Amino acid sequence: MTAPDLRPVDVLTVAGVTQVTPSVRRVLLSGTEAAVAAAGPTVNVLVPRVGDLAPRWPQIARDGRIVWPEGAHGVSLRSYTARRQDTAAGEVEMDFVLHGDGPAAAWAAAAEAGALLGVAGSGALGDRPAGWLLLAGDETALPAISRILTSAPASTVGIALLEVAGAEEEQPLHAPPGVTVRWLHRGGTPPGESTLLAEAVAGLDRPEEDDVFAWVAAESAAVRTIRADLRGRWGLGRAQHHAIGYWRRGRAMSPAGGLLPGTAPS
User: Fold this and answer.
1) Residue 119 and residue 11: Cα distance in Å, rounded?
2) Which domains does the chain have, with CATH numbers?
3) Cβ neighbours for 237, distance < 8 A, ≥ 6 positions apart
4) Which positions ≥6 away from 253 have C-beta within 8 Å?
5) Local confidence band at 99 (pLDDT 50, 70, 90 cut-offs)
6) Helix H or strand E segment including 135
7) What count of other Cβ atoms lies within 10 Å of the Cβ of residue 235?
8) 198 SS3 class
9) How far is it, in rounded angstroms, from Cα 95 to Cα 15?
10) Which of 181, 153, 183, 147 lies closest to 168, judged by CA?
11) In the chain, pLDDT over 70 holds for what percent of residues?
């Protein structure tokens, strides 16, 4: 592949960091209008080693493939949801859950002004407007659920089920008046080992409305249980739900679908 067939990745720079809850760090990133527009809603981020201000970034082929440099480079590919994008201001906000010891959590824990983060493509959230909406997720899904709630029509009704460790991990969310937000506290149960989210969905009756959509994202095993319930007991077809495992217990994975094709060794 020749050089004209490749383009450099977009690079964002950390402008600020906020500790939103004990386990969630919000990173404000700045960049060009094009880079910010490309950074969401779901975005493949290139995470350098902590403290590396001159990473050996990959390049992007015309067909969107990531072309990695030869030899060691220390850059890891992960997928996240941008909580907010403001192209006019050149800003992107991303939330990082700090449990685990993966490269993205380590980078976010140490992030300070001037740190770099690469962008290598983006995708949709998989949601759609519906008269009755079910949202279910854990900490890793909160940025996506926040975006979905914020953009939902004011007439939307439904429920959002959100599993977190405790009250200290709750975050303000802007939901339509008809959408109930219910926080589920797992207490001392480690992330990925709780059954709260699946049990909460199992405790719901299918709404009578025809225009129903369910969006679910959490640990992979929990999502499989909920997906089976929605397809079986609720009878939802493929166009009526989106359920994706954002991470897997015991593995260093990223929110938004786990290890991605072409993931480089970290």
Assistant:
1) 6
2) 3-123 (2.40.30.10), 132-247 (3.40.50.80)
3) none
4) 102, 246, 247, 259
5) confident
6) strand 132-137
7) 10
8) helix
9) 14
10) 183
11) 92
pTM equals: 0.89
pLDDT at 20 (0 to 100): 96
Beta-carbon contacts of 252 under 8 Å, excluding residues fewer than 6 positions away, are 100, 101, 102, 103, 266
**Helix, strand or coil, per DSSP, at residue 90:** coil
Residue 188: both structure tokens together: 């001392």
- Residue 54 amino acid letter: A
How confident is the model over 158-184, as a mean pLDDT?
Answer: 97
Parallel, antiparallel or unpaired: strands 91-97 and 116-123: unpaired
Contact 111, 17 (CB under 8 A): yes
Among candidates 158, 148, 152, which has minimal Cα distance to 209?
A: 158
Residue 63: which residues within 8 A CB-CB, separation 6 or more?
A: none
- Report the C-alpha gap between 172 and 81 in whole angstroms: 17
- Which tokens in the block code for residue 197? 């989210």
Spatial separation of the C-alpha atoms in residues 244 and 251, rounded to whole Å: 16
Q: Which two tokens stand for residue 60?
A: 């992007």
Q: What is the pLDDT of residue 3?
A: 63
212-219 vs 241-247, strand pairing mode: parallel
Task: Tell how far CA 31 is from the center of its chain.
Answer: 20
Pairwise CA distance, residues 197 & 245, whole Å: 13
Total length of the chain = 266
Contact of 41 with 124, CB cutoff 8 Å? yes
Query: What type of residue sits at position 192?
Result: G
The distance from CA 99 to its chain's CA centroid, rounded to whole angstroms, is: 15
Quick check: helix, strand or coil at residue 183?
A: strand
